[in-house]
Amino acid sequence: MKILIVDDFSTMRRIIKNLLQDLGFTNTQEADDGNTALPMLKGGNFDFLISDWNMPGMTGIDLLRAVRADSELASLPVLMVTAESKREQIIEAAQAGVNGYVVKPFTAQTLKEKIEKIFERVNAA
Amino acid sequence: MTIENRDERLHLARALVRHLEAGDDQQAEQVIRKLAGEQAERLYTEVGHLTRELHDTMNSFLEDAQLAEIAHVDIPDASERLRYVITTTEQAAHATLSAVEAGLPLVDDLKEQAVTLLERWRQTPEDGAPLSGRDGELEAFLEQVRTNTTTLHARMSEVLIAQGFQDITGQIIRKVIDLVQNLEVKLVELIRLSGHAPSAGNSRSVEELAGPAVPGVAQGEMITDQDDVDDLLSSLGF
Prior knowledge:
The structure holds two protein chains of two kinds.
Chain A: E1 3-6, H1 10-22, E2 28-31, H2 34-41, E3 48-51, H3 60-69, E4 78-82, H4 87-95, E5 100-103, H5 108-124
Parallel strand pairs in A: 1-2, 1-3, 3-4, 4-5
Chain B: H1 3-22, H2 25-60, H3 65-73, H4 78-123, H5 125-131, H6 137-162, H7 165-194, H8 202-208, H9 216-219, H10 226-235
Helix pairs in contact in B: 1-2, 2-7, 2-10, 4-5, 4-6, 4-7
């Protein structure tokens, strides 16, 4: 299971990486923006994408749209982890094809549940 | 409204009517501009005062006794100071995360060993009995280690998660930095655009607005230096 963590704050990337390790996911990589993440995803054989929304270059929602529009990446499971909690934004992400949405600040338990839920659905499909 | 103002307005209004009745559109236009100018005048004065207040407040940061040294040596202005907050909280969060990352494996290791020993001894009661010490002290101890390391792991994970503060506060601070910078630049630009001091030289306004086909007036020159802002505000009478 290879996971890409995308957030412009290095502290948040580190936290998520540690939480994933705790859950047994040790194969993780990081990117600090949608712009740096997209080339990493293409041909990178990632199984899961965790991304923030607000990033200076390419935002998380635009990264999500780019992933869904790419023939190779279209079915990649995507979890958004972000401080954006407005209803319209959550709806926008859902309509863009996000698989899960976690609002900051979050607990380890919440992250675990959302990830497990996504994999349940992916495996069932 | 003062009596002088009202009298002035009345005077201008009568002049306007005269010009309109006589068909002097150009003159009428001028009077209309004068009348409208009063309103703009008041607004301009308010905005000028506000900008001066904002500028002075930002400058007074530097006069604070405690911060003066840091400010004059390391941080020249408010936005820089905010960026400094982001940087130092980032460093502190990373330092904490390093400590937690180093500590967790030690905790997990202890727990694993305690559990292994407990299981081994419990499987061989005859052999294990002398080793468990008086009244099963050692066994009790190992149980304690198992319980405590589980709790310790959970607590350290909480410390880990709590460092998320740096991301959230950092995002808010970035927005404030943008706001402060935008606000000051726009207010100063607005004053430049209106182009004249309150006790008006029409001559000055004509100079500023000379050449109607110049799109560059709106963009102007960005004032980013604090001293330049100070000079500009002073020169405009604020």
